[in-house]
Amino acid sequence: MWAWPSLAALILLEASPAPAPSGLPLLLPPRGFEARPQDHTLKMPGVQAAALRADALVRARIWMQPETAIERADLRHTPRAEVPVPDEAVCRFFFKKTNGSTQKFFCVFRGGEVMKVKYGRDAEIQTEVAATRLFRALGAGANEMYYVKKLRCFGCPKEPDALLRCVSSRSAEVRRECAPIYGERTPAGGFQVRLDYGRYVDFTNVSVQHWFPGKTIRTDRVDGWGWDELDRLQSGSGGASRAERDALRLLAVFLNDWDNSADNQRLVCLSGGEQDGGGCSRPFAYVDDLGGTFGGIPKIWTRTESAPDVEGWRAVPVWKDAASCRVSLRSPALHHATFKDAEISESGRRFLADRLRRLSPAQIRGLFEAAGFGDLEGASEQSRDLGRWVSAFEGKAREIVEAGPCPTP
User: Fold this and answer.
1) Is 279 a domain residue?
2) Which 3 state secondary structure label does DSSP give 145?
3) Which one of 116, 205, 303, 348 has the fewest CB atoms closer than 10 angstroms to its CB?
């Protein structure tokens, strides 16, 4: 057995400070970066957890009133959050396991908020910022995402994702190789990580995620929700209407959100909804991970996602069959898709169309500008042209606005 590493200090020779850009400190400020308590999961009795979760999903809402009228929403600037994040930001490395295939780590920002940072040459950095801002502007739930041009992380190793994967590995050989890089071996066969918060690493063009408010509703066996499960459980009454479910499904098709496994959706209990016994009176379901968007159909059906491709996204039709208002999303087999072919109702089409038509070209351009689409690494020149993204967005929106009437009311 190997021990989970402690949070002592690690001297990182490869992370020597570079010259400080304007506004960023050379030393971590003595106050303001202490992590606040992390309590994000609703406590439910184990024997009743499955039933309580199912009851919450049956009644879960999936749309809310936007904070700002859609036609007045400013999609260019950072959304309001507990911790504002500017173009240049500072954080303190927070040692916590991560999952998924993208490079990421957790960091404490001023005020004590622990947020997730994605870094490296990964198109999800830009796509997730744009997709979440669109969802929130239209009234669908989503995390708050920020595109940060320079992030100074105190205590970070040069490759924090590599460190976290090393300590999470079940392979003793991998852990032995990690030990001299990130710390020292322990008598139990693991290794102890040492972090030095007197040093920093600068990361450029990253995304920072502030979670949608609410406590996660999950069981030991089920985390998230599937599109197929949502339709099955909410086909009666008490939750979202058929029009609301169809509109959310159509929005996912609009963005081509092909990575729609159940663990990429989140079920939460909103503030004030917690009940004695583990129930929830205010359940809400939303799409938690919107990174696999704006890229068209993946070019390689493996674990590797394709980069955002403006012409590829433009070329993927919204409707599989426009006459019947049938939609479809293709997903690689390994991604455990929960999105099945479905027919969108006329009320669902109009629900989304009424919202999309209220966005102006300037707002749409601001969406892609704020998300850093002009900085896409590895993308074609066309896919770094914001004007092409605006044109593609408007064209796909017209497919929805000008369609119909759909056969189902």
Assistant:
1) yes
2) strand
3) 303
Burial class (CB in 10 A: 0-12, 13-18, 19+), 347: middle
pLDDT of residue 5: 34
Contact 383, 307 (CB under 8 A): yes
| Dihedral pair phi/psi, residue 384, rounded to 5° | -100, 5
DSSP E strand stretches across 98-223: 104-109, 114-118, 144-154, 183-185, 191-195, 200-210, 215-216
- 129-150 burial by CB neighbour count: b if 16+ within 10 A, else e? bbbbbbbbbbbbbbbbbbbbeb
pLDDT (tens digit per residue) in 345-403: 999 999 999 999 999 999 999 999 999 999 887 778 898 999 999 999 999 999 999 99
From the CB of residue 192, how many other CB atoms can be counted at a distance below 10 Å?
Answer: 19
- Residue 24 tokens, joined: 């960023």
Q: Which domain holds residue 314?
A: 43-78+213-401
In a domain, 185, yes or no: no
Angle of helix 386-401 relative to helix 242-255, nearest 10 degrees, comes to 150
d(CA 16, CA 222): 43
Asked whether the bond before 79 is cis by omega within 30 degrees of 0, the reply is: no
Q: Judge whether 83 lies within some domain.
A: no
Q: At 285, list the tokens.
A: 């379901």
137, part of any domain? no
pTM of the model: 0.88
Region of residue 155 (left: phi > 0; alpha: psi -120 to 50; beta: else): left
Instruction: State the chain's maximal CA–CA distance in angstroms.
Output: 70
Give the chain's domain count: 1
What residue ranges of the chain have pLDDT lower than 50? Answer: 1-20, 296-305
Q: Residue 244: CA atoms inside 13 Å, Cβ hemisphere, count?
A: 21
- Hey, is 110 helix, strand or coil? coil
R_g of the chain computed on alpha carbons: 22
